[in-house]
Amino acid sequence: MSHAAHHLPATSALIDGRVVSRSAAAAVGLCKVYGKGETRVTALDEVSVEFGRGEFTAIMGPSGSGKSTLMHCMAGLDTVSSGSVRIGETQLSGLDDGALTKIRRDKLGFIFQAFNLLPTLTALENILLPLQLAGRTADQQWLDAVVASVGLADRLKHRPSQLSGGQQQRVACARALASRPEIIFADEPTGNLDSRSGSEVLSFLAASVRELGQTVVMVTHDPVAASYAGRVVFLADGRVVDEIHQPTAETVLARMKHFGTGTVS
């Protein structure tokens, strides 16, 4: 390592003579305010947080803590009141709608509680849809790895109605991964699933981080789901109040009770 590299911030690396951020996404002093006067609500209050490349982070907190708002602002789905959001090397503030749409399409993957699959398309067609909409060709080697890791090689010709809920959500995960995004945002991805199907989906997301180098940020209210992540960030009243690494369901639950949020909602 060159001498200069020692003076770089911990979140940067010197690659081919360039300083490259090690974080896939970061927020600095992020504020989000809804309404004015008496109806004014501060959903995010000076939030600064980074999400490292190739890491699986869960965001937790009680209802109204700002966790979904944080995800929506990080993903460019919602505007910020002040502060900044960066995806890779790109600052989102100041970008017009067209540029934001391009970043969401080219650099981000999304998994929601509702699977959002098109019923008339096969599993494989659903997986390939974002690439087709972007006018891009699938990298066959990457696609094969994604399909293998999602465990649906024998279900690719099935339509969503012929798949279980867990299988449908795994198709949605593969769709998010297919374009090899810089970061995947997952909003309560197991919210509609039974515990067994949920664990299948979470195992897949963890494997995509471990084996494929994917970056995943997941909002969840479930301590068991959070235990699949390498790090949990806790929000309360629009602020980051704590984080733990290598969590277990028990340590997450204990920490939530500590914030008076044991009524996990």
Considering the chains and any ligands shown, give keywords for the structure:
disordered C terminus; 4-stranded antiparallel β-sheet; 8 helices; 265 residues; alpha/beta; Rossmann fold
Could you describe the 3D structure shown?
The strands form 3 sheets. This protein has a 6-stranded mixed β-sheet, with helices on both faces. It has a 4-stranded antiparallel β-sheet with strand order 4-3-6-7, with helices on one face. It has a two-stranded antiparallel sheet with strand order 1-2. The protein has helices spanning 67-74, 97-107, 123-133, 140-150, 165-178, 195-212, 223-226, 249-258; strands at residues 12-15, 18-21, 23-34, 41-52, 56-60, 82-87, 90-91, 108-111, 183-187, 216-219, 231-236, 239-245. The longest helix is centred in the C-terminal third of the chain and has 18 residues, at 195-212. Helix 3 (123-133) packs parallel to helix 5. A hairpin with a 2-residue loop joins strand 6 (82-87) and strand 7 (90-91). The protein contains 8 helices and 12 strands. It is of the alpha/beta class.
Helical content stands at: 25-40%
Q: First CA to last CA: what distance?
A: 47 Å
Q: How many helical elements? A: 8
Work out the radius of gyration: 19 Å
Order of secondary-structure elements: EEEEEHEEHEHHHEHEHEEH
Q: Can you count the beta strands? A: 12
Give the total of domains.
Answer: 1
CATH superfamily: P-loop containing nucleotide triphosphate hydrolases
The stretches of 5 or more residues where confidence is low (pLDDT under 50) are 1-16, 261-265
